[in-house]
Amino acid sequence: MKALRRLAAVFMLAMAATAAHGDGGTMLLHQDAGAFTITLFAAPQPLQVGTADFSVLVQDRGSGDVLLDPMLDLTVDGTTIRLTTGHVSNRLLQSATVHFPSPGKRRLKLTVRRGSEIAQLTTECTVEPDGSRATLVWFYVLLPAGVILLFVIHQGLKLRSERKVQ
Amino acid sequence: MSDGVSQAAWSSWAFPFWATAGLLATALLYLRGFREIRRTRPLNFPPWRAWCFLGGLLSMWIAIASPLDTLDALFLVAHMAQHLILMSVAPPLLLLGAPAVPLLRALPRSVLRDGLGPFFRTPILHKGMRLLTHPVLAWVAVNIAYLGWHVPGPYELALRSPGWHEVEHACFLGTSLLFWFPVIQPWPSPSRASRWAMLPYLVGADLVNTALAASLTFSGRVIYPSYSSLDDQVAAGALMWVVGSIFYLVPVVAIAIHLLSPPSRRSSLANPQPPHIVLPQPRRLDLLQLPLIGYVLRARYGRMALQSIAFVAAVLVIADGFLGRPMSAMNLAGVLPWTYVRAFGVIGLLVLGNIFCLSCPFMLPREIGHRLGLAGFKWPRWLRSKWIAIALMILFFWSYEAFAIWDHPGRTAWLLVAYFAAAFLVDTFFRGASFCKYLCPLGQFNFAGSLLSPFSLQARSQATCRTCTTHDCIAGNAQQRGCELQLYMPQKTGNMDCTLCMDCVKACPHDNIGLFAMPPAPPSPRIDLAALALVVVIAAFANAWWMVAGKYTALLSLLAVVPLVAVGARFKKELFCRLSQALLPLGLSMWAAHLLFHLFTGWASLPPVLHQAAADFHWHFLSPPQWRMELPLLSAHAVLSLQLLLLDAGLLFTLYLGWRRALEWAARPSRAVLLLLPWAATVAAVYAAGIWILLQPMQMRGMIMNP
Angle formed by the axes of helices B162-184 and B198-218, to 10°? Predict the structure, then answer.
């Protein structure tokens, strides 16, 4: 019993860590444009119907230095969103949250402005449907329930045949 | 249809993953059973049966994966061809393969006897089978399905809804199997009706087919609104009429010829004389006896070759970690260990064994340490347990999150350097494999996981071990050292502490050690091993949870831990140990579900990262990296299906092991149920938490997925 208590204490200690958020996500694009080298990340991957985070890292094309002050605009389906450093803990990145209401291919346009320098990048991403996930999940949750039911019947039959033999 | 469209249509082969995997698995299972049954009943199972069965599976695959499936939405004739295959080609071919006995013989005898036996002995199953295969019921069923689904309403429904389309195909295939059953009479089913009755049986079905085909051909209007061409409908009717009739009438002719042939010939066909048969001894699967893998594992320098490759990779990771790009997704240290090595390590544990320890890169420096000749100390007796390693493992899991090691290539590099240094220092001064056995957290993770691995090093013959006087497997000899982890082969059960180093295999002078397929070993009563199992299980969920729940992880993980420990505390120590180790399948399945997700979505990360590393090192033999978007290896739904399936398998295996352990403990099944219920409820709660985790959007750590 003493060992068990010690064990419990060890686990509690291990789990009492503070969380560290990861930013960025999956790299969608890494490309030189104008005076910049631009890296675009997206999360989650694959992109699905619902909310997605887009983060951008901008570097000086010549020196490779990270630039923190460019103004970034992301245009998705005609809607332009300003990227900010507000809700990311990695301060090298600027990010924005985009809501995808439906699946399909989306065209993304990223505009980078810094002083008089402007650069634009475009790319495509595919948003996958989310609708059939519920069916899928129910199937896989009910699957073990069915197997357990079969197992219970199996054990009952086995027990009965053993009693018959005795 | 233009050439372009036509070309596109005919090149539209689908690849239905699960259906293809299922058909392949069935084919392999059948072939294995067929080989077994051929040894005892060669006359009942001539090779043509196997060809027929495989042909049946192939025709099913063609029906669901070929352009017929793509074209069925455009052309009625293609759709009818698909139905013909599912109703008249695949079922008779499958039944000609007499699949019941080979498929059952392919299963392990214990599964057949203890698993399926109780079901097969129930009278209700026999009655059900007799009813379903009764010719009258089968004839009515197939024709109801055939006519019912060709009524415009249901037909259009199947065209609109993929789900109903699947149901339609399942109806056709299922009822057709029943229909063809009395015609083929697959061995060893008894005859249910006179063979003469099969003539009107088949002709009657052909008349129904003819009536339907004629109504399509001569209706003069389009019956199914989804198909606009009357010519297409006429062609479909003609196909059903001509080809469909052939499938019915050819068996009529064959049966008639058989019935009209002389009785002596019929009798010899029905009762072939068996030859004299010598039953071969059953053989255990021994990986060391297989051609390629066996050679690599047994080769004198086989392990060293694997370790050298891993060592070079580790050195590259360290170098890139310190000198390369700070962004983990663009650095070998952010991608190779966290996306690839972890996933392949867990896959290795599930399908083979402890392959990470087999090819461990940290072994080479500790070998050098050993050769310095300073290893004069024995590892202190009071430290000979897993507690330090468990503490280090917890420390690792905590620091992995707290310091975001995955996101900092430099920290990953430092971690590897520390690992090399620790392995070198410990094994320089202490004898044996003290680092591996008592300290290495990675090793302990793999030891715990390998308790479920399907293969284990075991003695081929205990009798040989009993007569052995030198015990080279543990003591070693002049050419080869023995087991450094002090595992004595005749007493070894399971894989705990086994690094698959093959020292025992190479040292045994009797060649008496093999790598055999084995069931999981009985649980150990040691509390430290129970704790190790619990840490592996809880870390599986906590690590994944952290990625989706962030700061709430600590709180939620505690909620998962408390009932586990509380439930355990209710039981006696030995039972607690048994049940804790029974949780391993659930934990390992969660690790696999989590890490395979990263592998499948980021499978193409490595090439650009390698190119980037080469560019950073100014090695110009590789071109500059191409960071571009590519599709993940599997679709999101396929990955989720695989993850859920893994978790289901883990849950079921855990519950089964728990049930076995409780039965061993309790005298009566009713007492075992009472004992198990609170534990099973906790397991179910952890499983539910796992499902929830898998459904959350997950951070894509340390990877460049070219999406």
Answer: 150
Query: CA torsion sign, B455 to A146 to B105 to B178?
Result: negative
- pLDDT score for A88: 56
The CA-based diameter of chain A, rounded to the nearest angstrom, is 94
The arithmetic mean of pLDDT across residues B83-87, rounded, is 92
B433, B486, B449, B28: CA torsion to nearest 10:
120
Mean pLDDT check: name the lowest of A126-140, B53-67, B297-311, B499-513. Answer: A126-140
Search chain A and give the residue with CA nearest B546: A19
Burial class (CB in 10 A: 0-12, 13-18, 19+), A145: exposed
On whether any CB of chain B is under 8 Å from the CB of A104, the answer is no
Q: Residue A118 contacts by C-beta under 8 Å, 6 or more apart in sequence? A: A34, A111, A112
Determine the residue of chain B that is closest to A11 in CA distance: B561
Chain A residues whose beta carbon lies within 8 Å of the beta carbon of residue B573: 1, 3-4
Of B391, B557, B655, the CB nearest to A15: B557
In this structure, how many other beta carbons lie within 10 angstroms of the beta carbon of residue B131?
10
- Choose among B138, B145, B234, B85: nearest CA to B154: B145
Asked if B699 lies within 8 A of A27 by C-beta distance, the reply is no
For residue range B406-436, list pLDDT tens digits in order. 888 999 999 999 999 999 999 888 888 889 9
| pLDDT at residue A39 is higher than 60 | yes
Cis peptide, bond prior to residue B102, ω within 30 of zero: no
CA distance B182 to chain A (A): 29
* CA dist., res. A71 & res. B76, Å (int): 57
The nearest CA of chain B is from the CA of A72 a distance in Å of: 20
Site of tokens 């009655």: B127
pLDDT above 60: residue A142: yes
The CA–CA distances, whole Å, from A161 to A157, B110, B121, B188, B482 equal 6, 17, 9, 25, 49
Query: Are the beta carbons of B703 and A26 separated by less than 8 Å?
Result: yes
Query: Given CB atoms, is A127 within the 8 Å cutoff of chain B?
Result: no
> To the nearest 10°, the Cα dihedral for B330, B336, B340, B346?
-140
Polymer length of chain B: 707
Q: Against a cut of 0.90, is the pTM above it?
A: no
Q: Chains A, B: CB contacts under 8 A, how many?
A: 172
The span from the CA of A7 to the CA of B529, in Å, is 12
Q: Give CA–CA dist B432/B452, Å, rounded.
A: 25
Among partner residues A46, A141, A144, which is closest to B707 by beta-carbon distance?
A46
C-alpha pair distances (Å), B599 with each of A21, B411, B703: 21, 22, 9
| Percent of chain B scoring above 90 in pLDDT | 34
Q: Whole-angstrom Cα distance, residue B585 to residue B537?
A: 8
**Closest CB to B538 among A11, A21, A161:** A11
The 3-state DSSP composition of chain B as helix, strand, coil percent (nearest 5) reads 70, 0, 25
* CA pair distance A76, B546, nearest whole angstrom: 30
Shortest CB distance from A4 goes to which of B397, B565, B602? Answer: B565
ipTM of this predicted complex? 0.71
Mutate to test the interface with A, among B110, B386, B551, B561 (most CBs of A within 10 A): B561
Cα gap B689→B648, rounded to integer Å: 13
**Does residue B393 surpass a pLDDT of 90?**
yes
pLDDT at B481 over 60: yes
Q: How far is CA B22 from CA A55, B60, B89, B172, B703, in A?
A: 41, 11, 19, 19, 32
For residue A46, the chain B residues in CB contact (below 8 A) are 601, 632, 635-636, 707
Contact between chains at A19 and B553 (C-beta distance less than 8 A): yes
Q: Is A74 in CB contact (< 8 Å) with chain B?
A: no
User: Looking at beta carbons, which residues of chain B come within 8 Å of A31?
Assistant: 627
Question: Which residue of chain A is at minimal alpha-carbon distance from B567?
Answer: A4
